[in-house]
Specification:
This protein is of the alpha+beta class and about 190 residues long. About 30% of the residues lie in helices and about 25% in strands. Strands 2-1-5-3-4 form a 5-stranded mixed β-sheet. The protein is flat.
Amino acid sequence: MHLKLKLLSGRGTVVHRMELGDRCSSYAKLRETISALTTEPLDLYYVDSEQDVCKVTTDQELKASFEARTLDHGVATFIAAPPGTAAGAVRAVAVTAATETGAGEVHVNVTCDGCNMSPIVGPRYKCLVRDDFDLCVRCNSLEAEPFPKVRVPAAKVRVCRRRRRPAPCAEAAAEASAAMEAAAVAAA
């Protein structure tokens, strides 16, 4: 088994992968491992199988972290983030390549109508009866009155950057406009 630590700081995210060994045998050992990688004060989180962001502060919570999630190919992933970091930012850092369960899917510009998760991370369920009604996997499982829904895969997002064209100068625009008017008068 491996340990993956995603360290979130003002300089970005740095990912460290190492043999698990006894690094997770206690909360103190895990903090010691993080302290060897950075001097910044960081809180420790994981994302459970219901896509909730959970903070780890004790040995009991560390033990529960292994029971509350499925390990991706034998890798235990923890996110270390500055104190006060928003849960959405931690969740976004936790997202990895999509798996067959949809755990790595990110549905950009879609909000869960049950818990307001935005973007929806993980499987997304779109109602076939109610207009513009989407649920995350957790809210779909908790829904009291199930309606027919379809699971929607996340769109593959490709970022394109446009180059901005310089605005034409006023003189050139006036000359072009005058030339077009002259051509229109000559044609008439």
